[in-house]
Amino acid sequence: MVPEPILVVEDVCKHFPLEHTLGRPGDGGVVRAVDGVSFAIQEGETFGLVGESGCGKSTLGLTILHLYQPTAGRVVFEGQDLAGFSDARLKPIRRKMQMIFQDPYASLDPRMTVGHIVQEPLDIHRVGTKDERKKRVRALLDMVGLNQQYIDRYPHEFSGGQRQRIGIARAIALNPQFIICDEPVSALDVSIQVQVLNLLQDLQRELRLTYLFIAHNLAVVAHISDRIGVMYLGKLIEIGPTDLVCNRPRHPYTQALLSAVPEIDRRRQKNRIQLTGDIPSPINPPSGCLFHPRCPIAKPDCAEHAPALRQDESGHWVACHYA
Amino acid sequence: MNHQPGRSSLWRDAARRFMKNKLSAVAAAAILLMMLLAVFAPWVTPYHYSEANFDDAWQFPSWKHPMGTDSIGRDYFSRIAYGTRISLIVGFAAQLISLLIGVPLGAIAGYKGGRADYLVMRLVDVMSVFPTLLFAILIMAWLGSGLINVLIAIGVTGWVGVCRLVRAQFLSLRESDFVRAAHSMGADSVHIVVRHLLPNALSPIIVGLAMGIPGAIFAEAGLSFLGLGINPPTPSWGQMVSTHLPNVIYYWHLALFPVFMIALIMLGFSLVGDGLRDALDPRMNE
Predict the structure, then answer these.
(1) Least confident interval from A22-26, A266-270, B178-182
(2) Nearest CA in chain B to A121
C-alpha cells in the first residue's frame, strides 16, 4: 500500500490581478504566476522544483504555505485541506510547515539578536518556559554548527552562509515535519553552498524532515532531491525520479535546461540545445502548449491543444504531445 | 549567562556611535545646556522676566544687564532664559501631539493597506494642500492665542509628515522577508507590528522627531512674531523680535539675541537629528 503523502497540491493556481494606478482593480488582466499545478510529496522525501526565474516556483512555495491565498485548487497537508483557513486556524499547521528563504540578508530582522531570531517561533507558539526556550536556542545553534557565543550578536555581523544557518535554526526550532527551502543556497558562494546543502541533508536524516526544495540550479537540485519537478511559465511540465529526469529527460524544455548545465570534464559536455526567443509573458501566455513558440520539436497542433501531464510505467510524468 | 536582552546593547551601541560624532555631541550638549537654562531659569536669572524698571530702559549689554534691557527696562537675559522654556515646551509637546496622531494613522495605512490606506492618504493630501503656517494661523485665529492653542495648531498641522514616514516604513517593511518569515511561523498582526515593524521603524521616527522639533519651534516663533502665539508678558523669542522690530535699527541687541537663540536651538536639534540617524542604524559599524 502506498502511504498517504504528507503534502498534496491539487490544481493550485495563483493569479495576481493587474492593478490600475490609484489602487483600483485593473481591466481584468491577470498574471498567471502559478497555473494549475498538481503534485504530491511523500513523507521523508525531498522534492526538487526547478525552473527559470519568473516561472512561479517561489510563488508556488508561498501559496502552499498560504502566505498567498491560492486563486484556485487545493493544498492538503497531512490529510487536512487548508482551503479557506484563517490565519488563526493555520497557526497549528504552520508549526509543522516552515520555510527557509532565499536571501539570508532580508529574511532576518536586523533589529533582533541571533538568540531572539531563533527563539521567535518558540515565542509565537509559547513553547515551554523562558529558560527552556533559551536552552532550546542554544541546542539549535549547535545543531546548525554555529558557536553559542554568537547568541547576542546581530545578523549583520555574520557572513551569508552563517546567516543561512541562523535561518535554518529558526526553521527547525518547532520540530516541523515539512520545510520549504526557497532557493536556500543560490545567494551563497559555491564553496558555502555545499556546506549548507550537507547541513540540510544531515538535518533531514536526524529529524526525518520532508523538503520541498526550490532552485533554479539543476545541479543543486539533482544533488539533494529524490524527485524533481520542472516548471515552466506557472505549470509543471515534467515530474520524475531524479535520475530519470536528469539522465533521460523527456520534455524538450527539460532537455534544453539540462544541456545548459556546465560540465568541468569537456568530454562529457553535451550538445547545447539553444532555445530561441524569450519566456512568454505570464499575462498573455501562448495558446495550446505554453512551450510551443520555443520548442524545437513543435508541430502545428501544439499551438491548439495543451498537453496534460501523462505518466509512464516508470513513474515519470511529462506534459508533451511528442515526447 | 551573557544572554542579555539584545535591546539594551543595541541602544548602548547607538549611544556610543552618537558620541563619536563630535558635531552632534556638541549640539546635544548645547541643547542640554538650554534645557538646564529653561528648568533653572528662576535661579540663574538676576531679575524676573516681567520686572519693569523705567530708569533702566533701552540699555545696551552691560555687566548689570548682560543682554541689555528693553523699552520698559526689563532685563533681556531673563526674558531670553524664560523664552527657552516656551521654545522647548513647544518643540517637544507639539511633536508629541504629531506623534500621537501620525503614528497610529500611518501604521494603519501602511499595514492594512487598501481602503484604510486610501482614506488616510486622502486626509493627508487635504492637509498638505494648506501651507502649514497659514493653516496654523487659521487655527490660531479661530482658537485665540495662548500656549495650549499654539501646541494644538502646530501639532494638528505637523502630524502629516510623521504619518507619511510611518506609512512608508510599514509599507516597505510589511513586504520584507523577515515579516513574511514571521507570518509563515504563525505570527499574528500584533506580533508582527510590535516585534518587527515598530522596532524597525523606530529610528526613522526618532530621527523625524528630532528633525521636526526645530520646525515646531520655528512655527511658534513665526506665530508669536505675527502676534498670534504666546501672550505677553510671557516672553517668547519670536514675540520679542516682533515687539521691538521698529527699534532694532538703534537697539541691535533687541533683535540679535532672540534671533541668535532661535538659530542656535534649530541648528542644535538638526545636528542632533543627523547624529541620531547615523547612530541608530545598526549596519553602520565604524
Answers:
(1) A22-26
(2) B185
Task: Look up the ipTM and state it.
Answer: 0.85
Q: Do A152 and B9 touch (CB under 8 A)?
A: yes
Residue A230's nearest CA partner among A263, A194, A258 is: A258
B282 touches chain A (CB under 8 A): yes
Residues of chain B with pLDDT under 70: 1-10, 282-286
Residues from chain A that touch B195, judged by Cβ atoms under 8 A, are: 109, 112, 120
Q: Cβ(A289)–Cβ(A302) under 8 Å?
A: yes
Query: What pTM was estimated for this model as a whole?
Result: 0.79
Contact B185 A103 (CB under 8 A): no
Domains of chain B with CATH codes: 12-39+74-284 (1.10.3720.10)
Q: Tell me the C-alpha distance between B84 and B87, whole Å.
A: 5
CA distance A148 to chain B (A): 10
pLDDT tens, position by position, B198-238: 888 888 888 888 888 888 888 888 888 888 888 888 888 88
**Radius of gyration of chain A from its Cα atoms, rounded to whole angstroms:** 21
Identify which of A143, A161, A160 has the alpha carbon closest to the alpha carbon of residue A203: A143
Rounded CA-CA distance B262/B53 in Å is: 26
Please give the grid coordinates belonging to residue B67: 543682554
pLDDT at residue number B1: 35
Q: What is the pLDDT of residue A24?
A: 57
